[in-house]
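Final report, closing paragraph on structural work. Over the funding period we assembled a curated collection of sequence-structure pairs, and we close with a single example.
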Amino acid sequence: MNTNPPPQARILMLGWEFPPIVSGGLGLASLGLSRALAARTPISLIAPSIQVDNFPSGARLTGLNQLEAAGLPRGQAEVFEFIATAEQHIPRHTVYDTAQLALPSKYVSRQQKMMPEAPAAPAAPPPATEAEQQPPPFALKEAYGQGLFQQVIAYSKLAAHLALQQSNDFDLIYAHDWLTFVAAIEIKRQTGKPLVLHLHSLEYDRNGPHSRGWVFELEQQAMREADLIIAVSSYTAQLIQNHYGIAAEKIEAIHNGLDEVAPYRLKKGFPEKLVLFLGRIAEQKGPWSFFELGMQLLARRQDVRFVMAGEGALKIPIMEEVARRRMGDRFHFTGFLQRKQVYDLLAMSDVLVMPSRSEPFGLAALEAAAFGVPVVISNYAGLAEVLPHAPRVEPTEVEQIAGHVQRLLDEPAYYRRLSQQLRQEASRMSWEKAAEKVLALFQNLLTR
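Its predicted structure, as stored:
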């Protein structure tokens, strides 16, 4: 009888958001998970850009922006059939997530046309010389911006090239969200190695149940070709089954973890209570509901302020509405915050509201709970699975949201009890526990 432990799974991890390019939960989860995995097993990570401290020394981290030109593929040295097919079908527009630019019907009269028609395709350039065919080092200054689809294709070509060079150094492919799926499918087809997808967000979440197109089809194709799918919640696992038609036995739910940060409190520079929205200011996250919450409560009381922390397509339209309604002295915008700034803001906040239309997990609200900040969360959020005491609301029912926030502001005993309950529930979550569960699935997959 063989009593030797199974060999460690050598992981090729494909990521998009990674420090210094972090837009939200995907980047935080990628960092937390990869750091915990690297402390336990060999891991090679390929991302557009990497700048991170205190990472386990055994990991191989490759930021494509750091590649020397001499190490890049020349001309047609490699044939990537799936990447070529995906490139032929990328959408003509250059800004992803255009649905997030839409305003609710009550504000449509103020909306300006924000998405110009795609220009006509330029005339084909003359054939490139061999020197011109050599691509420049990968450059990405923000996670989601102009030319995103073209950046995904460029990432895929370079990641596939690197993976083939080190194909003897990994046992499985571990890809995070749709931005890495073109590369992941190509690498699986070229190497025959098992493919594991980790789904932090779906096209369903970002653009609604009727959204179709290039991203949805890419997600679905990757799910069909994957050997295993990890969802960040059972809520997301159900969407993968019902909306994408994927068999349940192929899907496992593993909740996100938390960084180990000792909670603290900071004194505010004003006497009012602080109600916080923390995340991408996009339609998915329900920022208009938060704006209307501010309107309702500020019409009733002056002992509260509202803060929207983050960036997104709806930030400017909401700022304009705040200014038009003369709410600027009680409704504030921070823009993008670094991690220490996020923690300081949580340390000053009294309530966090997460009115997302569809939220796979809700890492920002989990961090708030860990700081002892009570959270009011959407009915459509995976976070409810780990914070069962959190008040849940319909994201468009602003009066319902307002009722929960007012109770927290007006009933100190209830506030203290909920704060303690949520902090205790959040304390059970860690990236180490998540990584152990991920590795167990990997070992099971490799020993089938």
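The radius of gyration is 23 Å. Residues 148-165 form the longest helix (18 residues). We thank the funder for supporting this effort.
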